[in-house]
Each structure stands twice: as C-alpha cells, then as structure tokens.
Amino acid sequence: MRVDKYLQISQLVRRRVMAQRLCDAGRIQINERRAKPAAPVAVGDVLDVNLGERRLRVRVLHLPASPREAARTAPFEILDQERTGRWP
Predict the structure, then answer these.
(1) For 3, phi and psi rounded to 5 degrees?
(2) 20-37 pLDDT, tens per residue?
(3) Which of 10, 14, 34, 60 could connect to 75 by a Cys-Cys bridge, CB 3.0–4.6 Å?
C-alpha cells in the first residue's frame, strides 16, 4: 500500500492530498528514510510523521482496506509522540 493512502485510511492525516504534500515536504519517513507519496508501506515499518507542532512515531500493525476497517482495529501502534511550540 502507498504511504499517502495508508496515512489517509488510518486517519493519521485527514486527506490524501495533505499526505502527499507532507511527503513532498520531507515530513514523512519510513524506517528513517525520507518517503515519497508512492513509497510502499509494509507491516512492521516505523513511520515518522511530522505534522507541524506534532511529531508521531508509529509502527504499522496491519494494512486496512477501508477507513471503516481501520476504525474497528487500530492499524498502528504509537511508539512516541511529541508536541512542540507554546501550547501544552
């Protein structure tokens, strides 16, 4: 599955276009390597997602086929999260 599609279906990012823009800006990494929007994601991969003031590090547990399936079972495990900026 493409990383931009995974980010959208797993609801880490609301829209696929936003996921593509984050990839193009270098804010998405797969296993510590910069990811392009079409980069493949596999079970066990570690994603670093930098969303401005929020940084997430997640491990892919499974690849959901739809947002409904992702809502039933968590498609990722949060390994680390960090908030930067002035708001707690």
Answers:
(1) -65, -40
(2) 999 999 999 999 999 999
(3) 10
